[in-house]
Amino acid sequence: MSTHLPTADVQDPESNTRTARLREALLAADFTADGLLDLLGAPAYAALARSETVPAVRATRGDSPLETLVRLFLLQRPVDLRQAQAALPVADCLADGWLVRDGDELRASVDVRPYGGPEGQDWWIVSDLGCAVGGAGGIRGVGETDRSQLVLGVGGASTTLAGITVRRPAAKALDLGTGSGIQALHAAQHATRVTGTDLNPRALRTAALTLALSGAGTADLREGSLFEPVGDETYDLIVSNPPFVISPGARLTYRDGGMGGDDLCRTLVQQSAAHLNDGGYCQLLANWQHVAGEEWQDRLRSWVPRGCDAWIVQREVQDVTQYAELWLRDAGDHRAGDEAYAARYGAWLDEFEARKTKAIGFGWITLRKSGSDSPSITVEEWPHPVEQPLGESVVRHFDRQDYLRATDDAALLAGHFRLADEVVQEQVGLPGAEDPEHVVLRQNRGMRRATKVDTVGAGFAGVCDGSLPAGRILDAIAQLVGEDPVLLRDRTPASIRMLVEQGFLEPVAADG
């Protein structure tokens, strides 16, 4: 199975015209994320995302254009020439290398996967055959291409990063390690100029195809590692789904960083400040080591460059055996035979033992270049479900840090607050008890946090509508509960700060 990339040339007007006709044919056949869901049904659609093809094969036994396209580009089956001609501009696809002819049959040269944009856009992500989801094992193998140079398509990591990214208008955005171009495609919707970099030249070619087929225009695509291709240029937004896997060696470019331990992620974070404009964001996914005798939070705080605020969220932790098994299977090493598998597994464990690594954390890192001499650095563990997209929640997190940093306790008590939208109160206690054992405030939006509060905190939050300053609300509560108002004012600011920091309360102007 050949895995040569299409030869469509974004610099050639005739090639661009042919690509536009291909895009029109995909739309006409409803080869879109919604169209696939309607055709396959939810179970088969979800199975396809796990590289399980049997349900999709059963659902595409007809000869409609949409079924033909699914067999060609997603299941990577050959189709009859006449069926292909009913679905696609075959001459255009052959001219630009999207299809390869073998007698009276045609087959795809790449995986083309429908992908829904955040505002309902119909996009398509191009990747190597068998590499749309999961890993390099893929649907039907990976053909002749060197496995180390494979380009993966859309997966859980890439959609997670797209969801947490700040989507404010930007003059310049950088997608570092662009891969198949998913983050560059998103950035092109709100950034005037998009630059994409990758160490793998096949990835740059694939990203160009993704952008062209999705009608997103072009990006400035450059080959090289980390920030080397961009010199001293600066950006309003940097996003990266880097090769963050902590592994012995660098066998697979799409996942292995080629540096020891978590050094690649650390280096990316530390170097990013020099490439951010004031107020700019750097957002990435990362793995980090949990090292014996060291707090993982301290390890990550040490990565944050001067002049940057940071919000780091650990979403998952795996022990070293789970982690090694996950990525050995990703590479197909479990099919290499018992002896070879054991040797490779041992090499991973040797690497972790040498580095005193007991577990691996995975999560999100967001930096904002604030220039502050007293930066806000939040490092937390939050493995619970969140509401995507989170980009606006990220902006509000840093806005709240700015407010708290600039507001002393006196100003806090003079401030006005409102309860955030869709916060509910839960009372926990024994049935029939006169008073609850404790009260929980719970968010139904964003990070969906929950926090315990005492009766004063619950009462305070419940009446915060922006109309009264915090101090006057506390005075009223003190009168109700029979507490000295001065003492209540003294002990409550820390609780108010916590509720603001976690997004339960929002500062508002005195006029609401």
Quick recap:
This protein is an alpha/beta fold and 512 residues long.
List keywords for this structure.
20 helices, globular, alpha/beta, 512 residues, three-stranded antiparallel beta sheet, 19 strands
Can you offer a commentary on this structure?
This protein is of the alpha/beta class and 512 residues long. The chain has helices spanning 13-28, 33-40, 42-49, 54-59, 65-74, 81-87, 90-95, 156-164, 182-187, 201-213, 263-272, 296-301, 320-330, 338-354, 391-406, 409-414, 455-463, 470-481, 485-491, 493-501, and strands at residues 79-80, 99-102, 105-108, 111-116, 122-127, 170-176, 191-198, 220-223, 235-240, 276-291, 308-319, 357-369, 377-381, 416-419, 423-428, 438-443, 450-453, 465-469, 505-508. An 8-stranded mixed sheet has the order 8-7-6-9-10-12-11-13, with helices on both faces. It has a 3-stranded antiparallel sheet with strand order 1-3-2. Strand 7 (191-198), helix 10 (201-213) and strand 8 form a beta-alpha-beta unit. Helix 2 crosses helix 3, helix 17 packs across helix 18 and helix 18 packs across helix 19 (485-491).
